[in-house]
Design a protein that fits this description.
This is PP2C family protein-serine/threonine phosphatase. InterPro entries: Bact_Sigma-Reg, PPM-type-like_dom_sf, PPM-type_phosphatase-like_dom. This protein has 389 residues and is of the alpha+beta class. It contains 10 helices and 12 strands. Strand 8 and strand 9 form a beta hairpin. Helix 3 runs parallel beside helix 5. The chain starts with 16 loop residues before the first strand and ends in an 8-residue tail after the last strand.
């Protein structure tokens, strides 16, 4: 099913990986019906023919049909370009004779026009062939990248333990470039634990670092009694497996005690707590820690802090691709703290609907697409009630 740009790969209850719109536009163009792909070149031929006839024999507009082969190369397969160009050639000859261009005085112009059209047609066939090869390669590589990202993230279901959740992951980079934003939610012996993070940079190096952090989190979250121990395990993995100087901002979340949430801040975007009545609190850390991979530059150790988190509250986590989003690099940043109350309040029973509203509002703010990778993650105490249909 075709969807709006930037929202093509979404699935209810988990975090979809929204990959490059270029991939989906290219694939759909290859699979489109013939008449859809033929509309533009055939329409141009008909338009030029009608205008030339209406203009009378004193005007010679038939040479404008030379734009048809390049247009056809943008949407058609090579053999279809040949057929379309052949039709264009027939119309070109007919209009040229109608305008009297085949008379002896105009023979040189007449044959020059035909030769130029044939040369453009041959070049357009080559261009079409190269375009098809590139598009198929792009679709194949992008599909592999999307599968790798999905395997890395392993999106959880709409409920983990007693926590309801919903997420959106958006990879804004083109082709096979996939980002380093990450998140994970696990049900452990120490309660539900979550992580959201952002690796510095993009591409395969960022994905490798994200895999290191997520792999360490999936192990440490089940072994360490407190979040500080989890953070130290993540730091050790970064130092062992990620090149020196690279780092990852992260926020660790733990739901171990009733009516509270435990947080550990490693240089990441502070979370928002939205109450059922729309009250919003930005949970800035009293003692923030450095990003993962940079602990050797700091004194002391990471420390957690606890804040109230009652039934009906929603915790909104995101990466900087959300709060730094703006239209084409201009204008104000996305005002998440101002928009969150109306979009998220009272959504503890259905965070999926809330994250969809936030994501849609974010796209409206940016003009329809994001220029950076972004993650939105909503967490709420959902109790044991049924999930929304």
């Amino acid at each position: 099913m075709r969807r709006q740009r930037g929202d093509r790969a979404e699935h209810r209850g988990s975090s979809p990986v929204s990959t490059s719109p270029i991939k989906y536009d290219s694939a759909e163009l290859l699979q489109a019906r013939l008449w859809v792909r033929m509309i533009t070149p055939l329409g141009v031929i008909m338009l030029i023919a009608v205008v030339d006839v209406l203009a009378g024999r004193q005007a010679y507009l038939a040479s404008l049909i030379s734009v048809v082969p390049p247009l056809a190369a943008l949407t058609l397969f090579p053999l279809e370009v040949v057929a379309t160009s052949g039709l264009g050639l027939v119309v070109l000859i007919a209009l040229s004779r109608y305008d009297g261009l085949d008379e002896p005085a105009d023979t040189r112009l007449y044959y020059g026009t035909l030769i130029a059209f044939i040369a453009l047609s041959a070049a357009s066939v080559v261009i079409s062939h190269l375009r098809i090869l590139r598009t198929r390669h792009l679709v194949a590589v992008s599909s592999v990248a999307e599968a790798a990202q999905m395997a890395l993230l392993r999106p959880p279901g709409p409920r983990v333990g007693d926590i309801r959740l919903a997420a959106r992951y958006v990879s804004a980079a083109d082709a096979a470039k996939i980002g380093g934003d990450l998140y994970g939610v696990l049900d452990t012996p120490f309660g539900v634990r979550a992580i959201i993070g952002d690796v510095r940079g993009k591409g395969l190096a960022a994905v490798q670092a994200a895999a290191v952090v997520l792999g360490a989190f999936r192990e440490a979250a089940f072994d360490e009694d407190d979040l500080a121990g989890v953070a130290l395990r993540l730091e050790a993995s970064m130092l062992r497996h990620v090149p020196s100087g690279e780092f990852t901002t992260a926020l660790l979340v733990g739901f171990r005690e009733p009516d509270t949430v435990e947080l550990l801040h490693c240089g990441h975007v502070a979370p928002l707590r939205v109450s059922p009545d729309g009250g919003t609190a930005l949970l800035d850390p009293p003692d923030p820690w450095v990003p993962l991979g940079l602990a050797h530059l700091a004194m002391g150790a990471p420390k957690t802090w606890h804040v109230p988190f009652l039934e009906g509250d929603v915790l909104l986590l995101c990466t900087d691709g959300v709060i730094e989003a703006r239209r084409r690099g201009e204008g104000p940043f996305y005002p998440l703290t101002e928009r969150a109350p109306d979009l998220v309040a009272g959504s503890a029973a259905d965070p999926e609907a809330a994250v969809a509203r936030v994501y849609a509002d974010l796209l409206r703010h940016t003009g329809g697409e994001l220029r950076d990778d972004a993650v939105l993650l909503l967490l709420a105490r959902g109790g044991a009630g049924p999930l929304p249909a």
